[in-house]
Amino acid sequence: MSTVTNPILPGFHPDPSIVRVGEWYYLANSTFEWWPGVRIHRSRDLVQWELAGYALTRRSQLEMRGNPDSGGVWAPCLSYADGRFWLIYSNAKSLNGIFKDVRNYLVTAPRIEGPWSEPVLLNSSGFDPSLFHDHTDDRKWIINQIWDPRPGRNAFAGIALQEYSVAQQQLVGEPVTIFKGSALGVTEGPHLYLKDNYYYLVTAEGGTGFEHAVTVARSRSLVGPYELSPHHPLLSARDFAAHPLQKTGHGCLVQSPDGCWYVVYLCSRPRGAKRRCILGRETALQPFDWPEGDWPRLPQGNLPALTVDVPGTAVATDYLPDFVDSFNASQLDLQWNTLREPADASWLSLAERPGYLRLRGRHSLNSMFDQSLIGFRLLHPRCRISTRLEFYPRSFQQTAGLALYYNTENFYYACISCDDSGQRELRILAALNGKFADLLMPPHPLPGTGAVAIVAELNDGALRFILGVDAPDAVAVVLIAGIDATTLSDDFVHEGGGWGFTGAFAVLCAQDSGDLGLPADFDSFHYSKTSC
Length: 532
What we know:
By secondary structure, the protein is an all-beta fold. The chain has two domains: 2-310, 5 Propeller (Tachylectin-2, Chain A), CATH 2.115.10; 322-529, Jelly Rolls, CATH 2.60.120.200. The protein has one helix at residues 490-495; strands at 2-5, 17-21, 24-29, 34-35, 37-43, 50-56, 72-81, 84-94, 101-109, 120-123, 130-134, 139-147, 156-165, 170-179, 188-195, 198-205, 213-219, 227-228, 235-236, 246-255, 261-268, 282-288, 307-310, 322-325, 338-339, 348-349, 357-360, 372-377, 382-390, 398-407, 410-418, 424-432, 435-438, 444-445, 452-459, 462-469, 477-484, 505-512, 519-529.
């Protein structure tokens, strides 16, 4: 047996959807406003996972310019049938207020690496769409949450079912509401399974926060009525506030070749007294029992497990404890993401200065357009991030450096700029739910020439920035310590009255309000898990 420690995919890996094809397991996650869309991992043993790539890599598949924070790709559903992979996803265009403006799409591919097709528009009636292949009659069905914006109504109005015609590439017939949800409410994230002549409906309920849960219902008929499981909820930490894994829900089921069943689900790990989850919503794995004709249930209650045993001899290793990029490749590593749009040669180049990432500044970090940045997920509560760059601004309107970033209104940014006399300096800009401040006053002066090394160290929510300068007699300088980085979390955004569903990133970025096109050249990036 192999012992797996949860989460299996740490950091921002929410809304997992899993499918097995032959000896391979494939797992897709939401990517929200980060580009490319729908991150896909694969594994042969459920123990060791590798990043296979992304499904949505063209603007014709995913247009997100101007999408709000935590908009974009929600809750993909990955399946396999008829010799092809099928992927359903939402593109959320608004999420504040009483409306949720989304469009749901379908793409297919012969291989997980692609090429993925152009999208088929399905509907806009709600989010979290899923595709069910009914092998009893070879028909296909779309199920999704129905959103009701009318004041005074239950906004989560139930789960709707509608047939999808492959030949016509569109939904046909009328949608039918098959499940209104349990008393937990906030019914979303549906998946359908056919087993032992029962249709099993698995949904997320309770909201994607600390009340989150996995709900199971079943029916002899596809259209219902669906009976709630006597073991409801299948999995949840809602009644166990001290458990290390919280917000557990949004489950998806898969069967191994030897007949064992597993559920993948999202979870979060709170830090500190305020129980904020800086790493966002992560992916966990757990086996469960599913006797023939009986209900699925966890072997011991419905609590998430910190470690689980799976068959095999694979050695469990920490997911990506170190990542180093010297920017010597012709393309960005798959671990890098951009915001809302693909990288463009007009602002990002790995060729203009070989061995360097060259960024040309555009909008500020507060913008939902034209961001010149690349981001790497924070994967561990204790980690060290460093970069080294050359940048020569001509005014305070040009900045470049290293940021720990949650969204356009929440980040900490150590950046090179210059004062009114042209003297280079390093500033640390903080954004806290849209309130901005300079943390380093006065800014730290920098030599007129030479590369600058910037280091960020995270220790269980406490952040500090360190400066190093290329010079014979230079020493590292702790610029500022004790920053509360738990503000880079869904929870802090919610405390401020907003919505957030992502996680913290380390980003390399450049800004230029003067449109001068000055290059910021980064010659390295290093991420490492630390023990203290």
